[in-house]
Design goal:
alpha+beta; nine-stranded mixed sheet; six-stranded antiparallel sheet; 29% strand; binds 4'-deoxy-4'-aminopyridoxal-5'-phosphate
Length: 278
């Protein structure tokens, strides 16, 4: 099946898609994005992703965009892709204009998407877990906005790989544990789930919200509160959450073993409950 791209209303094979070099996303990182996945041809939590996309654009004073048009376009590219399980990447930039820091006069955003077959983590990774390292969070102060400025995330991910780990976890200057390079983070202590509260320092993950909803439905206790690396290292279980990550257990953090070496009982229950909602 073809991997497709959508560029301002036109759908074409990915390799034929181009954008002008003066796109502000390319020049300044002046663009926002979303990543949506489908299961059995049904986009998962589409409205939640679109609401976050709208919020990202509003927070950055983008020109007003008709969300119904975006929604129809997303459904169209999922449909044309034809995958049972597909991933749609959406990127909207503040437009194409001669290079100038100031916003362009024109209100024409640049709207691109791609659709590909979903690449899920293997069952083995979900069962066995991964190793991570912590890194000082040197990203900007508005990580709650989903912008394409992912340079520091990329550096941190590479640092993790170079050190023999699989991913990195950002830690604030106060030793507070924030989130992963492309995921939120949860720990479990005494049967209670703990995750960083929603502040400008983390992305309000759609999967994070879905997991908290599952906790409410199943009366699993949870707390949205700050915790530091000492609490992280001593946790009974820990996992990363995200659209492609789902619930990915952490078995070692900065060399400290977590839990019994594989997915913990509560993490396993949450992964099953999440998949049940898809
Ligand atoms: N934090 C960061 C920094 C991310 O990039 C992502 C994935 N986009 C997440 C958290 C998880 O968000 P979601 O559950 O909406 O995929």
């Amino acid at each position: 099946m073809p991997e497709l791209a959508y560029v301002n209303g036109n759908i074409m094979p990915i390799q034929d898609a181009t954008i002008p070099i003066e796109d502000r996303g390319y020049q300044f990182g002046d663009a926002v994005y979303e990543y949506i996945t489908s299961f059995n041809k049904r986009p998962f939590l589409l409205d939640e992703h679109l609401a976050r996309l709208k919020r990202s654009m509003t927070e950055l004073s983008f020109p007003l965009v008709d969300m119904d048009t975006i929604r129809s376009a997303v459904l169209e590219i999922f449909d044309k892709g034809g995958y049972d399980n597909g991933d749609v990447y959406i990127q909207i930039s503040r437009g194409v204009a001669p290079r100038d820091h100031a916003f362009p006069e024109s209100n024409e955003i640049q709207f691109i998407m791609t659709v590909r077959e979903t690449k899920r983590y293997s069952d083995e990774m979900h069962a066995n877990g991964i190793k991570v390292i912590t890194v000082e969070d040197q990203r900007w102060g508005r990580c709650d906005i989903k912008t394409v400025q992912l340079l520091y995330n990329a550096l941190a991910k590479q640092k993790a790989l170079d050190s023999g780990a699989y991913d990195a976890v950002f830690v604030g200057p106060d030793n507070v544990v924030r989130e992963g390079t492309s995921s939120n983070l949860f720990i479990i202590v005494d049967q209670t789930l703990i995750t960083h509260p929603l502040t400008p320092n983390i992305l309000p993950g759609i999967t994070r919200a879905c997991l908290l909803q599952i906790c409410r439905e199943r009366s699993i206790p949870f707390q949205e509160r700050f915790f530091d690396t000492n609490e992280l290292y001593a946790a009974d279980e820990a996992f990363l959450s995200g659209t492609t990550t789902e619930v990915l257990p952490l078995i070692e953090i900065d060399g400290h073993p977590i839990g019994q070496g594989g997915i913990g009982a509560i993490s396993k229950k949450l992964l099953a409950a999440l998949r049940n909602k898809m």
